[in-house]
Amino acid sequence: MKQKVVNGLFWKLLENGGAQGIQFVVAILLARLLSPAEYGVVGIIMIFITIANVLVQNGFSTALIQKQQADEADFSSVFYFGLLAAGGMYGVLYLAAPAIAGFYQIEVLQPVVRVLALVLLPGAVISVQTAYVSRKMEFRGLFVSTLAASAASGAVSIWMAYAGFGVWAMATQQLAYYFFLMVALFFTVTWRPSLVFAINRLGEMFAFGWKLLAASLIDTLFNNLYGLIMGKIYNEEILGVYNRGDQFPKLIVNNLGAAIQSVLLPAFSSRQQHPDEMRHMVRRAVRMSSFLILPMLFGLCAVADTLVLALLGEKWLPCVPYLRILCVAYSFWPIHITNLQAINAAGRSDVFLKLEVIKKGMGLLGLLAGIRFGPLVLVSVKAVLDFFSTFVNAWPNKRLLGYGIFSQWVDIFPAAALSVVMCVAVYGLKFVLPGGVWLRLLLQVLSGAVIYGLLAAALRLESFWYLFRMARERVGGR
Predict the structure, then answer these.
(1) How high is the pLDDT of residue 427?
(2) Where are the alpha helices (DSSP H) in 232-346?
(3) 69 φ/ψ sector (left φ>0, alpha ψ -120 to 50, else beta)
(4) Distance of alpha carbon 52 from its chain centroid, rounded?
(5) How many CB atoms lie within 10 A of CB 400?
(6) DSSP code of residue 434
(7) Angle 347-125-46 (CA atoms, 0-180°, nearest 5)?
(8) C-alpha–C-alpha distance, residues 275 and 348, integer Å
């Protein structure tokens, strides 16, 4: 199992790192060609697409991974049901497009919603394909497919932006990515749908999946409330600035955090009948994810202004405060991800749903309190609530696994402390380093990596040496 996890994590990190690296470069080029307002328009649309995607997938993809004995009838039944649900949701969005455009008083929203909503169809197929990949832990094919889809869709969008297509360049990027990925996965993943549809299998999985659907829907609706509010109460330019500030820390979390998450669920599920083994795996995951993610987020916080100026230009500097606040908010993800995946693996989707209701109740109160003070206060309240949510997410695992929030914070503290020290040092360096924004950025990043690595080695952090041994074994050393 250790070898499967290591191999799976290796290919998942390559997939996320490669694909999101390409998407990051594409986003930088598009940001220089497009305005914050144009980014905000597509951001508004993606809110509705994201919510529709949650309804289409119905929690079945997680149920396929978690189910101990999932066979062809399960996968094919979910496949056909997902396509049917995607078609229905596309119809809803097609009819709702004029109302969405009227609500925001942005005329171009109507045609773009109707075109971009087509991503729901390949998205339904991809969710089953990736569930199969995750269950088998065969992430190599997903790596190749994602890389190819990112490169192809990025090339198309950049050409369109240069040609003056505006918001359509970003809309086409999303649409092309989903369709390219779906096609590529049919060539790289061994699973194919069969002419089987078993309604009773769907019923069995829905008994587990509906709670995840409800939890995911609550989470998605709440998280996208920030975008809906900024696009309506403030304006689409502030939404574009917020989304750009969110992009950088989310890139780290989606790369490392999502990779770890994809590997953890099948790994934890395979040990759901052995609580002691599962507790050991959860504790290892908390330590490792915090050791990897926290220094990157705190380092990003330190170089935020230099990074934005170098990559995006002066017109995007208003996103820096959002970027720094969101770095703090995302730093709690190692606890969130690991605890929630452990709860899912244990088959306790009922607990998962209860946690989401509690957290979003807290979040709604915070949102209502912060909205009157402006967008920066609103995002700051979100960061504070994310901290308190760690206690909520960890509470069930005190009983399920004997691994509560106090023990988790003890395991995270070394990486968090070193990350804060490194952040302060790197931030201070910008006042003494030589001029030239690119040179300053490079020196700050290298200094941060060296400071964190040396401190981890000197203090003999267990996670540092564990990673060192794994890397040495990976290249064939002992």
Answers:
(1) 92
(2) 236-252, 258-269, 275-302, 304-311, 320-330, 333-345
(3) beta
(4) 17
(5) 18
(6) P
(7) 90
(8) 14
Q: Residue 478 pLDDT more than 50?
A: no
Q: Which amino acid is at 166?
A: G
| Cβ atoms of 271 and 277 closer than 8 Å | yes
Q: Which residues of 356-380 are buried (b: 16+ CB within 10 A; e: fewer)?
A: beebbeebeebbeebbeeebeebbb
The fraction of the chain above a pLDDT of 90, given in percent, is: 9
> Is the confidence at residue 2, as pLDDT, over 90?
no
pLDDT higher than 50, residue 33 = yes
CA 404 to CA 418: how far, in whole Å?
A: 23
Total residue length of the chain:
478
Q: How far is CA 193 from the centre of its chain?
A: 27
Give the whole-number percent of the chain exceeding pLDDT 70.
78
pLDDT at 20: 63
What pTM, to 2 d.p., does this model score? 0.62
The runs of H, that is alpha helices, within 108-166 are 109-116, 120-136, 139-162
For residue 416, how far is the Cα from the chain centroid? 21
